[in-house]
Amino acid sequence: MTKKASIFLLFFALTFSLFAQQPEGKIKRSDCAHHAGITGGYSIGYGLSYLYQPNKSGFQLTYSPYYTNYRAFSNLSFTYAYTLRESRNINLMLYVAEGLTLIQNTPDYYSSKRNEMRFVTGCGLEYQFYLSQKFKLNIHSGFAFQIKNYEQEIYDTNLTTRNVQAYFFSPDGGVSLFFMF
After folding, report:
1. How many other C-beta atoms can be found within 10 angstroms of the C-beta atom of residue 49?
2. In this structure, what DSSP letter does residue 132 have?
3. Which end of the chain is more exposed for a tag (fewer CB within 10 A), N or C?
4. Comparing 159 with 24, which gets the higher pLDDT?
């Protein structure tokens, strides 16, 4: 068996073993559909987050602005998640995320990149761990596709600017901590 297939099988075996010893029955939690917190991830974005999860479906919005003298950075992400399996303290969910990142650099000696725009689409499994009645930890893992557009200045006999577009497939992941209200 190949190494990738072994890792894939181990991942799913561990996923479903989380639910093996959980008692069946109605899940008792506070009736909190609104969540506020912080998020850090590839396709789910990073920054301040708001999550609305009234039932098995949830919608998350993440935003972060960041400005310095040399860089302006902004990130906006939207995530949809659907519950596949529930237990008392853990939920297994399927998520799809779309993120947009805008970066504006002032060129210096080390970098010739100016403006950059990234679109990231990710999907995979999300694990929700209920830490208490009011706090929840979400962990995402899956795959992402990224489109990166940027302008690059080329220093040769004259200064020229070219537009570059790149495509990437990569692993996806992230962590969120929420306060439920």
Report:
1. 25
2. S
3. N
4. 159
What is the secondary structure of 9-49 as a DSSP string?
A: HHHHHHHHHTTTTPPPS--------EEEEEEEESSS-EEEE
Instruction: Report the predicted TM-score, pTM, of the whole model to 2 decimal places.
Output: 0.77
pLDDT for 6-59, tens place per residue?
A: 665 555 555 555 545 555 544 445 578 999 999 999 999 999 999 999 989 999
Q: What is the CATH number of domain 30-180?
A: 2.40.160.20
Q: For residue range 67-79, list pLDDT tens digits in order.
A: 887 788 899 999 9
Residue 60: both structure tokens together: 């998350």
List Cβ<8 Å contacts ≥24 apart for 47-55. 47/75, 49/176, 49/178, 51/176, 51/178, 53/81
Q: How far is CA 154 from CA 72, 106, 109, 113, 114, in A?
A: 21, 14, 12, 9, 11
Q: Which amino acid is at 54?
A: P
Residue ranges covered by each domain of the chain? 30-180
Question: How many CB atoms within 10 Å of residue 37?
Answer: 19
